[in-house]
Amino acid sequence: MIRTNATVCFATLMLELPLVLSSTASFSATDTARRCRDHRAFGSESPPAVERTSETPVSSSVHAHATKGETRDPLSGTYGNNASVCNSDEENGSSSANSTASAAGAFGAAPPAVEDISRQAQILQELSRKVINMGELRRLASQGIPDGAGIRATVWKLLLGYLPADRSLWPSELAKKRSQYKSFKEELLMNPIHIEQKACQSEITRRLEKSSLENHELDDGSQGFLSRSEISHGEHPLSLGKSSIWNQFFQETEIMEQIDRDVMRTHPDIHFFSGDSTFAKSNQEALRNILIVFAKLNPGIRYVQGMNEILAPLFYIFKNDPNEENAAFAEADTFFCFVELLSGFRDNFVQQLDNSVVGIRATITRLSMLLKEHDEELWRHLEMTTKVNPQFYAFRWITLLLTQEFNFADSLIIWDTLMSDPDGPQETLLRVCCAMLVIVRKRLLAGDFTSNLKLLQNYPPTNISHLLYVANKMRLR
């Protein structure tokens, strides 16, 4: 029964968006976004505070996380590439040499690697077909998508089911969905405060008038309103009842204020998302619009802190599409793709499901069992010897899809792999999380509770190609 009630979160959107759903937080940015919902999901089990200090990488070629306050563009070449020497236990293994995903060409840090050029040509060839072979596209994308000529934007839309495999249907589908999003905005966002206030007051007035007409004989001078003493508890502005119109209004106002705060704190070190420029302000407004529309169409979930961090990569990629028309409709496209992406993780955001077999606690337990299956020694040391509860680090990893553990460029490559899994992103995400533990196993086995917790809450820069290779090996076993 709990699941039936809780899954209403996406039932509303399924009814509203049949086209979409019928298909298939940096630590330095904000402490609040980092913890997401830890305070309410785990109560007294919240992890002890561990000071997050920067660690010197083993090699100067390892790119470090961006310095707090630094402003940059992920595509400007500031990041470096993910083929740098990794700070891991298996950095010199043959698996690293055989890994294929490279971001060097994608982010301008170095000339495109030969394999990137070859894979880009293969992806472009697949995208040029009248009917795209989704199996082949998933295989190519799982190795990393070279971010050139708007390839990643188009491939993500296909992988998320926003675009159909039949290219001839693209114009009509895009026009229909973009028009639908425009209607959502017109209905839900135009002067939202005034609309909510007017709707709230009108509904209360209607209820009071109806009640008065039903229960009172009107004198000639009466307007049919109840006296103050006759206003029911549900219609009182201070009522906390779930059916109270006023309570719903205040809750929505609080959610919009929270969205405003989180949007302002999204990637403050990247020009695209922050600053006083008109461009940055318009991007922030787009993020805000998407999150508010999503919250209103999904009353079972509404808005959960950290969703802005999941939304940001999608909007960034679509807004930077070299196709001007696609870039102009990036907000609408991002909304539908955000819905699709979150649909694979929706149970992690439903508070009523936290302790169920499909909630976030169960997901973290599955990660623990996956580690036990692949490296029982490490599992035993972490959970039995040093007593490092996986909730202390894995909660953020899973709910924010690793966006806070790696720099922006590397997180895009990880997402290429997550979206490419035909069985959905959840299992791939857990394998990547497990691989993150295995890669630093020597340091973990040598550490105690404090050092291990600090390491996992401040995951070191690593070779993303190697990380995904290790995760894929777990799938093949």
From TrEMBL:
Keywords on record: Signal
Signal peptide start and end residues: 1-22
Renumbered residue ranges of the record's region Disordered: 41-103
Domain of life: Eukaryota
Keyword Transport belongs to the record: no
Record's compositionally biased regions (Low complexity): 93-103
Ranges of Polar residues composition bias in the record: 78-87
Pfam families according to UniProt: RabGAP-TBC
PROSITE patterns: TBC_RABGAP
Chain ranges of the Rab-GAP TBC domain: 146-422
SUPFAM superfamilies given in the database record: Ypt/Rab-GAP domain of gyp1p (SSF47923)
InterPro entries: Rab-GAP-TBC_dom, Rab-GAP_TBC_sf
Identification of the protein by name: Rab-GAP TBC domain-containing protein
Classification of source organism: Eukaryota, Viridiplantae, Streptophyta, Embryophyta, Tracheophyta
